[in-house]
C-alpha cells in the first residue's frame, strides 16, 4: 500500500464526502491520481448500490414466491425486453434470475406477479 499526501485525502473527503477508507481505496486504485480516485470511488459506490438492490430483488422474489404470486421474470437489456421467463411455483427460479441480474449488470430483471387464483386458472388451461 502506497503512502499518500494528506492533502489528497482531504480533497477527496471534501469533494465527495468520502470516508478515509474510501479515499485510500480510491487513491490506491488510481495510483495517486486525484481525478481517477474520485471516479473510482463513484464506481465503487455504484457497484455497492447495485449489489444491495440485487439483494433486495432476491428478498422480494422469495417473499412473492412464498405467497404464490410470482409468475415469472422479465429480462431486459437496457430498455428492451430480451426474454420473459415463466416460473413454476417455488423459489429456485427467482433466485437464479436474481443471480443472473447481479452477474450481468447490463440486464434488468423484473418480477412478474399475479394473484394465486389467476395462476391456478392458467395451470388448468395449460393442462
The multimeric state of the shown protein is single chain
- Strand order in the largest sheet: 2-1-3
Count the domains. Answer: 1
Order of helices and strands: HHHEEHEH
Please report the total strand number as a whole number: 3
User: How would you describe the shape?
Assistant: elongated
Instruction: Note the gap between the termini.
Output: 63 Å
Strand content: 15-25%
- Structural class by secondary-structure content: alpha+beta
* Average pLDDT: 76
Which spans have pLDDT < 50 for at least 5 consecutive residues?
A: none
Rg, alpha carbons: 21 Å
Describe the main β-sheet briefly: 3 strands, antiparallel
How many helices? 5
* Residues in helix, %: 55-70%
Write up what this structure looks like.
The chain has 5 helices and 3 strands, in the order αααββαβα. It has about 130 residues and is of the alpha+beta class. It has one domain. Strands 2-1-3 form a 3-stranded antiparallel beta sheet. A hairpin with a 2-residue loop joins β1 and β2. It is elongated. The protein starts with 5 loop residues before the first helix and ends with a helix.
List keywords for this structure.
127 residues, alpha+beta, 3-stranded antiparallel sheet, 5 helices, 61% helix
Break the fold down into its secondary structure elements and pairings.
Blueprint (H helix, E strand, L loop, with lengths): L5 H11 L3 H10 L4 H34 L2 E8 L2 E7 L5 H12 L3 E7 L2 H11 L1
Antiparallel strand pairs: 1-2, 1-3
Helix pairs in contact: 1-2, 2-3, 3-4
Amino acid at each position: 500500500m502506497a503512502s499518500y499526501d494528506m492533502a489528497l485525502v482531504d480533497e477527496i473527503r471534501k469533494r465527495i464526502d468520502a470516508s478515509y477508507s474510501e479515499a485510500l481505496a480510491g487513491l490506491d486504485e488510481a495510483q495517486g491520481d486525484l481525478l481517477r480516485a474520485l471516479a473510482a470511488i463513484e464506481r465503487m459506490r455504484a457497484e455497492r448500490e447495485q449489489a444491495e438492490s440485487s439483494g433486495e430483488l432476491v428478498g422480494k422474489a422469495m417473499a412473492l414466491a412464498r405467497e404464490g404470486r410470482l409468475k415469472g421474470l422479465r429480462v431486459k437489456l437496457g430498455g428492451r425486453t430480451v426474454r420473459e421467463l415463466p416460473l413454476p411455483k417455488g423459489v429456485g427460479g427467482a433466485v437464479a434470475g436474481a443471480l443472473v441480474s447481479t452477474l450481468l449488470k447490463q440486464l434488468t430483471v423484473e418480477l412478474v406477479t399475479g394473484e394465486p387464483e389467476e395462476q391456478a386458472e392458467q395451470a388448468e388451461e395449460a393442462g
